[in-house]
Amino acid sequence: MASLKSKKLKSIPAEITVPGDKSISHRSAMFAGLAKGTTVIDGFLPSEDCLCTVHAMVALGATMEPLEEVEGVGLVKLAITGNGMKLKAPEKPVDCGNSGTTIRLISGILAGQDFKTELFGDASLSKRPMKRVADPLSQMGAKISGQGEKICAPLTIEGGPLKSIYYKLPVASAQVKSAILLAGLQAPGKTTVVEPVATRNHTERLFTHFGIKWLREDDCVSVYGGQEPKANDIVVPGDISSAAFWMVAAAATPGAQITIKNVGLNPTRTGIITVLLRMGALVTSSETHTEGEPRGNITVRGGDLNATVIGGAEIPNVIDELPILAVAAALARGKTLIRDASELRVKETDRIAAVVSNLRLMGVTVTEHPDGMEIEGGAKLQGATLPCYGDHRIAMAFLVAGLFAEGTTTLEGTECISTSYPGFERHLDLFLNGDAGARPIPVMSTVPQPLVDKMNRDKA
Ligand code: S3P
User: Tens digit of pLDDT for each residue in 89-113?
Assistant: First the structure.
């Protein structure tokens, strides 16, 4: 089992560039694989989750050509060639690894295909509820079976002719919305999803990028069936959910300043900026690119943070940032309340239980609630040996907490970080060791043959 250590931070780097956005990388690979022709994806996030999506699309008939690799990070530029919406039956069950986005969105794609597929994942993914996608996709005409009441993976999806639906989401989930819209592309007529609260809209923005017409009316998103994505090269911005770790590290360090370059600024994802501003950090963002997925630079200046309340409609916007925001709350003055966030209990681990337990092990007073927690800020954090619970965001949030703790903080099981942030350790090093950690990152123009073989392994 891998472990990583953290200790009091040495300095905050002036600038950092984080790897590509996970949600956009997943969707780019899927849409490229559904389009006829070749799409070059630059700025791709080569995390295990997104590579699962690439493997899945290759298993379903697309081809992948690796174009550029960054040492210590992975494949950041690739070309995917699809054959249109009619996919090929995979030769074996498709491995979705740890990735909820892969299994849920691919379920929507497979719902309209005329073959049967098995989708499986790791132990964590196999515990997560898939009923939320199985229900609407079954209503549309797919036959979906899974394990137990929550319809967990392994899932069997028997696709076929679909009918469009008007579906009110019982939980605010971009993954479920996207699965239904992807199935809707394959159903005659108009498929509408009603969102109880707005969630990230990357699928909709990528629909536009790939030439698919869709519409938003109030809280409804609709798409008409019978459309096929058109191949169109894309450049993925940096992931604000990865930037969040360094934004909090700077925000909690009075006098510090960091600029995160070329990061996604989609308003359905920038809730972290709003929350940090409310807590007293000085955060500015400057958009350098407004089309498609807006992107630009975020600058954070640290100060004394104050407690806040995080809840209601802003929760989907900060859902993946709540573990690191809980760490920010522990470093702030006063009591922070996180509420309306019971969705955290069905992420890669139960993130409410994991955050509460790890904060307590570091000496913070926390009250656990069914839908969140109350954190008493201002205590001196104590270094501790902590579990990651196999969850990348728990691992990274507590390594950042360790930058503010007395002594050493050890996170055990840190291999999970590669789920979303290859190269995290190198970036953490910049905070632990200052410039000594700033090793140049070479770009290679060719990709080693074993990787090419591995990526195309299901194609033959
Ligand atoms: C994601 C949506 C969110 C988020 C996940 C990625 C996506 O999940 O937590 O990390 O790419 O659509 P839900 O939509 O299930 O809330």
Answer: 999 999 999 999 999 999 999 999 9
Ligand 1 atom nearest residue 23's Cα: 11
* Active-site residue identified among 95, 320, 391, 458: 320
The dihedral through the CA atoms of 428, 431, 433, 436 has a sign that is positive
Residues in the chain, overall count: 460
49 and 10 both lie in a single domain: no
Look at residue 447 and tell me whether its pLDDT is greater than 90. Answer: no
Of all atoms in ligand 1, which is nearest to the CA of residue 199?
Answer: 14
Q: Is 110 in the pocket of ligand 1 (CB under 6 A)?
A: no
Evaluate: CB of 174 within 6 angstroms of ligand 1.
yes
| CB distance 236 to 11 below 8 Å | no
Distance CA 311, CA 275 (A): 10
Give Cα 92 to chain centroid, integer Å: 26
Nearest residue by C-alpha to atom 11 in ligand 1: 23
Chain-centre distance of CA 407, in angstroms? 31
Angle between helices 48-59 and 100-110 (to 10 degrees): 20
pTM of the model: 0.95
Classify 67 as helix, strand or coil: strand
- Residue 413's domain spans which residues? 3-19+237-422
Catalytic residue check, 320 = yes
437 lies in some domain? no
